[in-house]
UniProtKB/TrEMBL annotation, chains A, B, C:
This is UDP-3-O-acylglucosamine N-acyltransferase. Keywords: Acyltransferase, Lipid A biosynthesis, Lipid biosynthesis, Lipid metabolism, Repeat, Transferase. The lineage of its organism: Bacteria, Pseudomonadati, Pseudomonadota, Alphaproteobacteria, Rhodobacterales. Homotrimer. It comes from Shimia thalassica. Its EC number is 2.3.1.191. It catalyses: a UDP-3-O-[(3R)-3-hydroxyacyl]-alpha-D-glucosamine + a (3R)-hydroxyacyl-[ACP] = a UDP-2-N,3-O-bis[(3R)-3-hydroxyacyl]-alpha-D-glucosamine + holo-[ACP] + H(+). It comes from the Bacteria. GO terms for cellular component: membrane. Pathway: Bacterial outer membrane biogenesis; LPS lipid A biosynthesis. Transmembrane segments: none annotated. The active site is at residue 259. GO terms for molecular function: N-acyltransferase activity; UDP-3-O-[(3R)-3-hydroxyacyl]-glucosamine N-acyltransferase activity.
């Protein structure tokens, strides 16, 4: 993966300056860059690091004085992080999974395997499953019966996809992803304490011991194109219809998506987010880490939730929220400010009571 | 899995009406139901959807006007969600794991495998492990040495069960479940900052750098009958004795159960719940998603905790709690209401101060 | 694993008393101990349990009246939990994984496997990977290309280590650990709503639908010596350089460590903790369960955070914090006390308003 500066600039839509034929083989932080590395310097405040390293070329912001920095060449772009996307794509050394179907893989004879598919050791592909062209199924993966995986997908090691899941093109699953685990849905023969407590906001009524009857998942999971799921994240099957993940959705590690959930296109969920059953999340939503959403509610398009936000009722489209329970971010800041000033308020009220009592006794 | 309406009604204890010999092969939502589907319609407010679909039969609430809906037949029950449990059980198409012991499984010759057990490809069963009749061990599962799994159990793919775990009948483990991982228990040679901070509620005293010595898990995990554990959930071994999960306990995905925890019968834990070490949870408890419980405390029988509740001290039996830290749900609602009205309170107190100061100067 | 009391005392640096030649084969709680068990009794308040069991020997606190308890012998130590560390280490019955490279393992011919390494069934080791002497790679594990694992490491079943990860000696990974999953890093072509909302603390500006471009991980993960990672925990690769975990770090189950994070030596993270991207955690830090830390911030050395704490801005060294957002533990207790007293404060202010209005009308 060695490229000239010009090749890189062409590939990522940036501009090469200086000695554009200079060859770089790796991307590095300025201070630790060697002479064959491309230093990555998108923020002027880290420019001093360049002197500490040995880079002859760097990726810089537009207008940066690359010659003044002592460089032989540079690549410049107006939005550094976006340019890094392209740069990192062409420089990614990958996982080195082999090509073809490994001798130690078990592929059902009725499965349909596309052209140029790679299936790793100890992976299994179930009956009637379909895997699209150029897809990679990593070591120790399971692809269940009747599951469909699109073209150009990449399953890292130890991913499992349950029966009847339908997944689009360019899907990426990090290690340990669980697609189409059974939904978590149980019901008591008679009304349960939880049902009563929800109706009364706190009173569960007469407490009876009851056992839980399982509601099986008859639906599976449908996932659009260009979706990525983080390590050890889990997406449950729907009860009657499929749980649905839109196009371009990105989820981080250890995310939990319950049965019947629908997630709109291009929504992004950070690590350890949990979405409870039958909840609908809009498009272009962004949740920080450890957010939670209650069951059977709606979160509108373009909602942004800060880390740790717990959404326990409907969130309107476009709102920026924070807190437990979730409120508008500005309301949260006000409430928090009030909380910090509470001890002083108690003192003020005590002083007022004393003053009043004095006034009264003065009467 | 095609049945007549009568067969279904008989199987699930409901009543078939109209053309009870009508055959249905699938359950569907009303609007998307085809002519061979059984539309599921347990809530009158979705009745309009039926007209949009092509169902000739539906599962309905008692007293529903199925003929007025243009149906040829119906199944009615007094508690629809409970009837759905039975219906979904008989209609579940399953995972299509094969029967018998796969040629690519590794089963220790000293393991005791019951009748009609299925062990999938790339699964391994350790020395002296016992697996009860009719149990299914999915692809890429590990069953450790001296572990016991009861009858009629179902391990989905990539489940691991550590050495010496004891599990009852009808156990269901979703993909990636970890039973009998080692407990997380470390101790410093001298009193640590955490021990000091707990004693003083905040002061960790002189800070010394210390390394952590590992306390190995000599216990394992004991799980009762009829337990289900969600995808990628983890149950750690006990230190001296086993961690204990009662009968009928149900856990959702990504739940964390630490060493020495005891969980009473029929308790239900939603996604991403975490229970810290040596804590005891009662029977018939229900925790919403992302709840947490501190170590070494007790949560009584029949406690209900809303999503995100963090229980940091003992919770008495029967209480309905919410919040961080957990308080009674009604107290939480009051506290929250107060918080929202705080800015107004600050204004009121300012006005009072101004009024008093005027009164005083009027004296 | 049967030892005399004297052998145990010598091995763990404690003192044997009475019949020091007495042989014990197992550690047990006092009430359930049999005649060949060593009862573990480090807290005098559980001494009554001893009479209920059949132990002839116990591990006790210094100065305990072992003869008065009717024991034939005892092991005493000044810090019982620390002594338990040594005791549990020598009594640990282990997982009984086999020795050598299993016939059903796939090891790339270019991998360098140290002396006395064990590789379990269905495990795979990639090209140029190096595994140090005496290390154990459990069943169904993946060790990626160019990864390095030190000596005396123990990977439980179904652990995955991605390409180019570098791990020190004595590493322990519980089942399902994910090392070197790809970082979760996406960028929009133009400024996103999240970037705007962060700058304005709540206003995301004009909402545009944008798709996410992936930033690939060019770095991997570097882990020091003596690290242990809990079941199903995930550590992502860095973007340009490696994510770094220091020596002696211990993590519990289901922990999420994002790209570029650095964690200092001897830091301990309890279950379900999440650390967002590019955040730096100091040395000797202790986080309770379900803590979260925002991206791009710093948590100083020796910080202690109670369970559920969400750190959203820099935390200075040595601080003991709690809450969402995190504040000093004592501040949190004050704020909480104030919250509980709020309803009374509202009443007081109402009474004051009434009194003032009466005073005014009396004028």
């Amino acid at each position: 993966m060695a490229y000239t500066l010009q090749q890189i600039a062409d590939a990522i839509g940036a501009t090469a300056l200086g000695d554009t034929s200079l060859i770089v083989a790796r991307v590095a932080e300025p201070a630790s860059a060697g002479p064959d590395d491309l230093a990555l310097l998108t923020n002027p405040k880290f420019a001093a690091g360049l002197a500490a390293g040995k880079a002859r070329a760097a990726m810089l912001w537009e207008g940066a004085d690359w010659e003044g920095m002592g460089l032989a060449g540079a690549i410049v772009s107006s939005r550094g992080r976006f340019a890094l996307s392209g740069l990192s794509r062409i420089m990614d050394p990958g996982q080195h999974f082999g090509s073809g179907i490994h001798a130690m893989a078990v592929v059902d004879p009725t499965a349909e395997i596309g052209e140029n598919v790679s299936i790793g050791p100890f992976a299994m592909v179930g009956a009637r499953a379909r895997i699209g062209a150029n897809s990679i199924v990593g070591p120790n993966c399971s692809v269940g019966a009747d599951a469909t995986l699109g073209a150009d997908c990449f399953l890292r090691e130890q991913v499992s996809i349950g029966a009847r899941a339908t997944i689009g093109d360019r899907f990426i699953a990090q290690p340990g992803v669980r697609i189409a685990s059974d939904g978590f849905s149980f019901v008591t023969p008679e009304k349960s304490g939880v049902e009563a407590a929800r109706e009364t906001l706190g009173d569960q009524g007469d407490i009876k011991s009851q056992t839980w009857a399982r509601i099986h998942s008859l639906g599976s999971v449908t996932i659009g194109d260009d979706v990525e799921i983080g390590a050890n994240s889990c997406i449950d099957c729907g009860t009657i219809r499929d749980t649905v993940i839109g196009n371009g959705v990105k989820m981080d590690n250890l995310v939990h998506i319950a049965h019947n959930v629908e997630i709109g296109d291009n929504t992004l969920l950070a690590g350890q987010v949990g979405i409870a059953g039958s909840t609908k999340i809009g498009k272009n939503v962004v949740f920080g880490g450890q957010c939670g959403v209650s069951d059977n509610i709606t979160v509108g398009d373009n909602v942004i939730a800060g880390g740790g936000t717990k959404m326990m009722s409907k969130v309107p489209a476009g709102r920026v929220v924070l807190g437990y329970p979730a409120v508008k971010m500005e309301t949260h800041l006000e409430m928090y400010k009030g909380l910090r000033r509470l001890p002083r308020l108690f003192e003020d009220v005590s002083a007022l009571k004393a003053a009043i009592s004095k006034t009264d006794s003065n009467d």
